[in-house]
User: What shape does this take?
Amino acid sequence: MSLQLFNPFKDLIFDEQFCFLTGDLTTEKISVFPDWLMDHFKFGGDRIEMMDKAKSYHYEDLKLPCSPRVKKAFEQLDEKIQEAYQKGFEGMASLDENLLFLWTGRIVYGHLYYEMRYERDRLLRQRENFNLSSSLRERFGNFHLMMQSIIEPVSFIGKKPWSIAVFPLKYSADIFSYRNDAINLLFQFGVNGFGFIACLQDNGIIGEKQKDILDKMKGHVLHPVQFEELYARFHYSDYLLQYRSEYKIENNDQGITMEAIPILQVANRPTFGFWDEDIFAQLLSNYWSVYGIQREDIIKFQKPPLSYLENPYSKDFIDPESIDLPF
Assistant: This one.
């Protein structure tokens, strides 16, 4: 007998009386952003915008309905992450990637959940039906299934279905850097001491593409401008990825296993599309705007694109201590 688990993307169920993870009726809730994190950096009263910029919420008001056992599981996970966080980079780097995936996934999924509810309610007011493409239903349904591994016998075999990179990072003590792309399931997190980047459903492909620069970084404490450039590389690589992640899912009375299916390339269709430096420079300038760096500073006539990660001629990693920018 196979294990029957709740999939909200099958019937598009995002009502607050149903646990977001199990579908059980509930009155319990858990914050999308861990309370200890909001308390530490005092951002609970700040606002976060939905994708269309027409709606925003206070971070502290974003809450997911959850059953008591789901709430307990995430509270226990929060305790483990907070303990590791207090130990800085060494603590975070020692964590099992599955824990980082679940902790990161709860935040990204929480944002996705609110995007779904907001779009559904907006369309209902216009007397239109809320729907998702089959490809998005499958992607988000698989992501939800991965998240259920926190309470259910869902396991991953073979290559991990994500890319997660953790590294030392130098920030001013009171700065907290965070971004997520709920639709593409990307996450960026940085504080003084460490940062990490997660592609939550790429089957490790983007991590492999960026392996060269990740290897060069080892032993260095990144400057924030390098952190932003690294995330831009992950983000643009995700945009260029020409194949969707697929899985072999086996379900029996012992539980569910998920195995990443290797990409079978079609002729004349590489794994990633063409890397356009002009487009990348525009993306990167969005992340570097805090430093006053514009697209025109990144791309200059007859000069290689500006990079704070690699010397454009030797391809050597740039020593973070040599970067004369604030952190």
Summary: The first helix runs from residue 8 to 11.
